[in-house]
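Standup notes
- DV: blocked on the single-chain target, sequence here:
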Amino acid sequence: MTLSRRALVGSLAALTPLAAAVAAPKDDPELDRAAASALRTLINSNSGARLVNEHCKSVLVFPKIVKVGFLLGGAFGEGAMLRGGKTVGYYNSAAGSYGLQAGAQWFGYALFFMNESALKYFNESQGFEIGVGPSVVMVDQGIAKKMTSTTLTQDVYAFIFSQKGLMAGLGIEGSKITKISN
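- DV (later): unblocked, structure below
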């Protein structure tokens, strides 16, 4: 691991206790509604998301991630894990970045867990990092148009949606997802 990547991962680890301090309560009806509404919007506007949603075991929805940066950047948001249309847990997503960047933006993203083994890995991990563990496929409009029920072979599918604001580049690399403990 390079020194810069270690620094990024270390920064994310340092943000985790802070994120837990501002965590959502055990029951958060507002976050439940926001996650359910964001998921409806996504599956109504994206045929790939609709197909994946029909076959997934569970979906983690972050209705709004706020990302700001000028050379150094950060992003944070809270989400809900939905299974069978019901909330089964709350999570936060924190990310750090560096490089030629400036601006602010917000977006939502959803992670569709396609099998129990990926969901088990996620639930048992001490903070889930995108790109570590089960395979995660970022789905863009091109991939979404080619998806069929027989091509759904990956562990987790990720969709980014409702992008607003102005920021050079967008990604969730370096993101860490942590369950909000109650």
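- Follow-up: The chain is about 35% helix and 40% strand.
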